[in-house]
Design a protein that fits this description.
Layout: H1 5-11, H2 13-24, E1 40-49, E2 52-61, E3 67-76, H3 86-98, E4 107-111, H4 123-131, E5 135-139, E6 146-147, E7 152-155, E8 158-165, E9 171-178, H5 182-190, H6 201-222
Parallel strand pairs: 1-4, 4-5
Antiparallel strand pairs: 1-2, 2-3, 5-9, 6-7, 7-8, 8-9
Helix pairs in contact: 3-4
Length: 223
């Protein structure tokens, strides 16, 4: 008897959606660490090839952009990509990589939404709960919400995020992940764009590192 794993997985989505709603009640959207005490920001991102995930974490000085520490990991992909359930796919490689860090950081920036999510529980919020640290979500497109003329994005008339424009025409959507306010998130992230940077520098560096790790792995496989 052959089991249709895809169908089994899809059948669990209503339960996972309810779990997201429950977890969203644990998210703190206020500052735990004052803005002036934030000195180190860690960016984390994941690249993929076939059934492998390549994750990189970069801990960086907020003001000088000096890289304090980097860590990488490669792991097997356990879940498919499903919009709104990104946390299932990326949480494991991210958490595995963050555990390798020996240096401390004040804020984590994740490539994915936080509370700007249909059930207020995007990847950044889920990771924030796991590591119990101030966390910010950065995404390139909206899953939901209505954007106003000032770039603020609301869900059910509640402001949940904001469009942030770097130098040039690049922009991202920012939202609170956990243990930080939207205002502090905005002020912090704006200062993390370098000239003509398309995303905040810690996240940009992590993105490039994860892709380099993937390329090195593939080149070794060809030998």
């Amino acid at each position: 008897m052959q089991i249709d794993l895809a169908r089994v997985f899809m059948s669990t989505l209503p339960m996972l959606a309810e779990l997201q709603r429950i977890l969203s009640r644990l998210v703190i959207t206020a500052d735990i660490t004052p803005n002036y005490l934030i000195s180190h920001v860690c960016g984390v991102d994941v690249s993929y090839h076939m059934n492998s995930a390549f994750c990189a974490a970069v801990n960086m000085n907020r003001n000088s952009f000096e890289v304090v520490e980097t860590q990488e990991s490669r792991s097997d992909i356990e879940f498919p990509y499903i919009s709104g359930y990104f946390m299932l796919r990326e949480a494991s490689p991210i958490f595995t990589t963050l555990k390798k860090l020996e240096s401390s950081f004040d804020v984590l920036i994740v490539n994915g939404h936080g509370v700007l999510h249909p059930r207020r529980m995007g990847l950044a919020s889920f990771i924030g709960l796991l590591v119990d640290k101030p966390t910010i979500g950065i995404a390139k497109r909206l899953l939901c919400g209505v954007e106003d003329g000032d770039g603020y994005v609301s869900i059910d008339q509640n402001i949940c995020g904001k469009k942030i424009t770097g130098d040039g025409h690049n922009y991202v959507y920012l939202s609170v992940g956990h243990k930080i306010s939207l205002e502090t998130s905005i002020n912090l992230v704006i200062g993390l764009f370098r000239e003509e940077g398309r995303i905040p520098e810690p996240l940009m560096t992590a993105d490039l590192m994860s892709k380099k790790s993937r390329s090195l792995y593939l080149s070794r496989q060809k030998k």
